[in-house]
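ARCHIVE CARD
CATEGORY: sequence design from structure
SOURCE FIELD: tokenized fold
FIELD CONTENT:
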């Protein structure tokens, strides 16, 4: 699941500690405990760009159900099932 914390770690690889004081107000530190300043607007913008991943994750069938679908209906039917979710929540 994509969160603002994972986005911060993507944008600021030196960050090892993140806490959210209030909505979109982050306290971030590196491995030595030094404060790391992050651009909250950039974090929110990147989160919105990647939010489609969360929406897809909720709608995809479980791995067990996907494998069962492949076994009983073949790869093409499985692809159609997955494509419906991808089309519903496209990458920006």
């Amino acid at each position: 699941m994509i969160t603002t914390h994972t986005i911060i770690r993507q944008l600021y690889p030196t960050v090892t500690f993140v806490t959210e004081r209030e909505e979109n107000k982050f306290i971030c530190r590196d491995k030595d405990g030094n404060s790391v300043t992050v651009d909250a607007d950039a974090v929110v913008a990147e989160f919105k760009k990647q939010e489609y991943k969360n929406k897809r994750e909720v709608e995809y069938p479980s791995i067990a159900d996907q494998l069962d679908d492949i076994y009983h209906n073949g790869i093409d039917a499985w692809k159609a099932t997955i494509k419906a979710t991808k089309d519903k929540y496209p990458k920006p």
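CARD ANNOTATION: The longest strand covers residues 15-22. Helices lie at 4-11, 40-59, 63-73, 75-88.
SHELF: design records, drawer C
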